[in-house]
TrEMBL record:
This is Transposase. The keyword Nucleotide-binding does not apply. The lineage of its organism: Bacteria, Bacillati, Bacillota, Bacilli, Bacillales. In the C-terminal section; belongs to the transposase 35 family. One of its GO terms (biological process) is transposition. Residues 25-64 form the Transposase putative helix-turn-helix domain. Keywords: DNA recombination, DNA-binding, Metal-binding, Transposition, Zinc. Residues 327-394 form the Cas12f1-like TNB domain. Residues 207-315 form the Probable transposase IS891/IS1136/IS1341 domain. Signal peptide: none annotated. GO terms for molecular function: DNA binding; metal ion binding.
Amino acid sequence: MARKTTKQRNEELAPDGKQLRHYGLKLRMEPNPIQEKQIHQTIGNARFTYNFYLSKKKEVYQLTGDTLTYGEFKKAFNRLKDHPYYSWLKASDKFALETAMEHVDDAFERFFSGQNKFPKFKRKHKSKQSYSTKETNGNIKLNIEKQTIQLPKLGEIKVRLSKNHRMMLKETGLKGAIKSATVTYHSSGQYDVSFKMEEVTHLKEPVDASKIPDESFIGLDLGLTHFYIDSNGKKVENPHYLKKSLHKLALLQRQLKNKSIGSHNYKKLQKKISKLHLHIANQRKDFLHIESRKVVDENQVIILEDLHVKGMIRNKKLARSIADAGWGLFKTFITYKASWANKTVVFVNRFFASSKLCNGCHTKNIMLSLSDREWICPSCGTKHDRDINASKNIKEEGMRILHSLPLSA
Ligand SMILES: [Zn+2]
């Protein structure tokens, strides 16, 4: 089965000056009890299909050295579904089962290209369980007015649209077409659906950096004292409600220690903690969406430090605050929002000494320590705010990089 890749389809669209754009839309679902049951059955059936195809592929390979193809397996699988013993497979969305098979093929492809380890079987007990299904002949729909979605075999399900979603959808409608949907159940009791959306857009015009005025460049220094500080001297704080939620989380975790493992109260508290984790993640995402939107709307070129977040998180003391600051996600949001708006993001190397360089005379102050929030340049006498100076340097370094590059799209 040959599915056209995005790259192939983009090559077909390019002569018309067009390209594909993908984005995700995630909504909270409120299924009724019958739908809940159906969702769990489909999750189970998709997992069964995945594991079954994987085990058959392994078996065929070990016995004959051949590859069991998707087409061959699907034929056999469909015959199996007709057998009374396996009739429960028919009760769930067939596209979900097909997608599970495709996921096995994808996992093997990634294995053979060296990206991943050998595919593993899916286990039942995980805090997050999901299945994916694909759009075929209008079987997946979103009704913004009614705040419902339609999914195969489930019918209409209530969804909760956030204020942001409602605003966006009212303004622009649903951009593009729904390609697939992933239904996720969290052990906290929450159901989500994520749509993969696809839109055909115009190819971007190449950016000529030399024509962009200096004031349209912005450098951001992501930090711990503030969420970020920009080269214009603007300081954005970490939100306080996030700190509050984290405090609450620490409290609950301490309470959990005093409960006997496996008891009713233990499980109840565990569920509460799981819920709070999700709440914090959502709070953080909302904050990052709003801040990244502002940065992208207000500037043409955004310059960021390519901080090695993963490496830094290993340092335990800083870990909490870094994880909470959500820098990695912030960069992802800025990058894709900029790409949609045909704006440019430049990353400067994390070993570039942004803090220690005087932005006035470009002398490196090797005596500067992490605790110096303000300092005076020993060479030229300029007084610096540590973070503002750093973000100015990041901006300059980004401009230097961009001006030395050929035109880029
Ligand atoms: Zn200086």
